[in-house]
Every structure is written in C-alpha cells, then in structure tokens.
Amino acid sequence: MQKAIIGRKVGMTQLFDENGRIVPVTVIEAGPCVVTQKKTIEKEGYASVQLGFEDVPERKLTQPEIGHLKKASAPMKKHLKEFRLDDDSSLNVGDVIKADVFSQGDRVDVTGISKGKGFAGTIKRHNASRGAMSHGGGPVHRHAGAMSAAATPGRIPKGKKMPGHMGAEQVTVQNLDVVLVDSEKNVIAVRGAVPGPKGGIVFLKNTVKNV
C-alpha cells in the first residue's frame, strides 16, 4: 500500500548503523496530518486523499480555506496537499496519520522547495566556464559569452542557458532510505539530504522506483 505524509525539515545530523558506520540523515517532523478531503472515481473521476498539516489560527486562513475545512469537520490546518494513492479505501475524512505510517527500511521520495539563490549568473546557475583571467580578458571574465550564431539563424535559440533566477523551485529527491521512525515525537530520519532550508515543508511518499 502506498503511504504519504506532510512534514517539516528540521535539519541534518548523523546516526550510527549496526556496524558502527556514520550515516548522514535529515530529520523531518512528520505529521500528525489529518485527512481533510477524500476524492472518489465516481464523483471526481479519480481517487485521492487530501492531508492537512500544522495547526493555525482561523484568522490566518482565507474564507474558502475555512469553509473547506469546516465542511470536513477538520481542525484549521496551514498546509494542504493532495496525494493520489493506489489504495486509499482505509482512509476517511478526519483520520489522523502519524509518522509511524512509515517504518525503518522503507524507501521514500521527498519533495520540497529548494533554497532560493536570487539572481545568478551562468557560472553559478549552469556551471559554465569563465573566461581567461589574463590581461585583455576583462571586464567580462564571468559573462555568458557568445549568444548565438551570426547570420544563421540570427537569433538566440530557445533553451539557451542564461543568467536568471536560481532556486526556489520544486525538487524531488528519490529513493531515500528511512533510517529512523519515532512515533512519539513524530520524527522521521531519512538517509541523505532533502530539498529546502531548515523549517521548509516537505512531502514524503513511497518511492516510485522499485529497486
């Protein structure tokens, strides 16, 4: 059965496995999440469940959000996320999902918003090479260089790697091992790094890779 949960990235630390080797892990405060909506094939055309995470005062939500949550008799939640699961028949509106939905040894895909880097040049953004640092090369050592050919085609092709906004986009890291699950503290530790800064919202789901 597919499983999913919403969490908050706490930060990175390290654990020791049974062989005494250091394992770098990311600690995630996972849940508790409440099922705020359940969609069915008969009504919506597909099956999914919507989860809510993190309590929030009602005054900090919009009127549509408040009405949506009150309709489900659910507590006010700041973050809502819909998951399409293979088998959601066991889940109903109002059910609470905690960190123990996953167990040690599971493999998950973690989705989050990457750190925003602001406006960046081609060297930082696309790993381009800089110009020679000798006399006569300046002041364009780190510029992008030639944009396109001359007469033909006479324009910059689509997809040209240019300077621009870097980061602050949705990123998914696949196939991470669940190293630790603490159901009392609602904590999940996964091996390796996950997208986003400390305190960022992340979504955990069974990996799509069967390896």
What labels describe this entry?
Elongation Factor Tu (Ef-tu), domain 3; 2 domains; 6-stranded antiparallel beta barrel; single chain; 4-stranded antiparallel beta sheet; mainly beta
Counting structural domains, the number is: 2
What is the CATH homologous superfamily assignment of the largest domain? Translation factors
From the 3D structure, determine the CATH topology of the largest domain.
Elongation Factor Tu (Ef-tu), domain 3
Taking the sheet with the most strands, its summary is: 6 strands, antiparallel, barrel
**Which percent band covers the strand fraction?**
35-45%
Number of strands: 12
Q: Tell me, what is the CATH class of the largest domain?
A: Mainly Beta
**Mean pLDDT level:** 89
Under the CATH scheme, which architecture of the largest domain would be assigned? Answer: Beta Barrel
Which stretches are poorly predicted, pLDDT < 50 over at least 5 residues?
A: none
Distance between the termini: 16 Å
Number of helices: 2
Helix proportion range: under 10%
